[in-house]
Task: structure prediction
Amino acid sequence: DIVMTQSPDSLAVSLGERATINCKSSQSILYSPSNKYYLAWYQQKPGQPPKLLINWASTRESGIPDRFSGSGSGTEFTLTISSLQAEDVAVYYCQSHYRTPAFGQGTKVEIK
Amino acid sequence: QITLKESGPALVKSTQTLTLTCTFSGFSLTTTGVGVGWIRQPPGGALEWLALIYWDDDKRYSPSLRSRLTITKDTFKNQVVLTMTNMDPVDTATYYCALTTVITSFDPWGQGTLVTVSS
Result:
């Protein structure tokens, strides 16, 4: 079974600064036909269901601001918020959708 | 517009069986590749995937909860039902259903339903 591990568990970033969240999978999650990775990122605000931000490790969903970007390969992936805004305060989860789904433990992003 | 909504009891007792229903619209579970998954989240905790079912009745379960879970679909009613046996207070959580496909993640999600397990 795939295990997804995020780091850090929480981080505080000043408004306008960069926030970086890491996610590591315990095994390869490569979708060979397209050479893409079965890796998604979600944002969850209090009292709301998770919202899909990024699919296939780096494909931003429609309507998601371009300050959110995903990158990575192999078993290590990163979500970057290039310029943190107040509305970005949330918990962020990575998820592998390879064979059976698996979520990371979440990273709480706060304002410093 | 795709919507999903979870329904079920807000309170169950230890050892009882929980039955949750996900009623959806805007897509069909007869469409090739389409699936519906269940995910839960304890208060203040992380997301945990539970089960999913695909258009062809392929079913997948969390390895750690497999023995307690059953997922079924009713394509005529546009519903997916999850049952979880032998409920325990640690199963207290918000339970979500969400749309998925064989190669994509979960999107969109229902609003979730909070289930509290009393001892």
Chain A is about 0% helix and 50% strand. The interface with chain B takes residues 1, 31, 38, 40, 42, 44, 49-52, 55, 61, 93, 95, 97, 99-106 of chain A (CB under 8 Å). The mean pLDDT of chain A is 95. The radius of gyration of chain A is 13 Å.
